[in-house]
Amino acid sequence: MKHSSKIFILPFIMLLSGSCQKEEITLSDNAKDHFFLKSDGAEMPVWVEGNTESKTLVIFLHGGPGGSSIGYNELGIFDYLEQYYGVVYWDQRCAGASQGNCNPDNLTVESYVNDLDKLIILLQLRYGSDVGIFLLGDSWGGTLATAYITTENFQKKIKGVIVTVGVHNFPLFMQEKQSMLNHFADQQIALGNRTNDWSNIKSSISGIDLSTIEALNVLQEKAYLAQTYLEEIDSIQSINLSGGKPNSLGFSYILNNNITSEAMWPQLLDYNLSSKLPNIVIPVALLFGQYDFVVPPNLAQDFYDKLNTPNKELYIIENADHNLGVANGIQTYKDKTSNFIATYK
Description:
CATH class of the largest domain: Alpha Beta
Shape: globular
Oligomer: single chain
CATH superfamily of the largest domain: Alpha/Beta hydrolase fold, catalytic domain
Number of strands: 9
CATH topology of the largest domain: Rossmann fold
């Protein structure tokens, strides 16, 4: 019996040993790596594509909360970066193709920051502790990027941050949305353009309580309408990413998981990182659109003014809205993001 037991135990030990071996990652100038980040019950897909030999990774943080990075990957939005760097596409918790824990009680800004930190640790384990990491956050992703670098000493792990059409102060965000809609309504009425429609926008947002979800829904709807009206006079352009208008409230619900939106937005309405911005010491670039009614460009100036880092950049891109870098302002977007990464890598 002793001889027989040794025969079965030895293969088991060999199998267990083999399963614990570290995966060997080969750096490439045309990587197409796919793996999953597991964090607190959630399984989140990650794609790393492009030039990982550069030892520079750009983590794209998609919008939402509850959006996805898949469309950006499939449309080749960041092909211009993949030539020189590895671009990390990550579907966040309870978003896109992610699976697992979607309990609303676990959906907080802090949980997303924690997931992002685990992603960065995972990337360092796979591609080397010496890899340089940039964050490129779009819309909600810009909020997440800002929350991350203002948490503990996490900014030390990051070479630089690019925030595109992101929000750092949500009470101000609501005020600016209302103010921008009123400003353009007055302007267009004076010009005789769609006077009834713009008047309806003004009346519908007058006197609303900006601290409520109901006000957010109204402002988002009117933001979409305002941009549609400006498209008619060729001020801006839009693009269809997934069966709807990218800057409409309906579009966000098509892409976003309803659980995520319903859990996160009540928290975000009074979320404000303004007091933490002076503590940022790493390079920051801010890119906003001139005609963005979803995240008004005046937020960018407030963000910029509160930064103490000497390496800060602000660009308000003409004739661009919330689809910055996707449908409009594309070349400027590419130039500014490329130059920023090349300068601080």
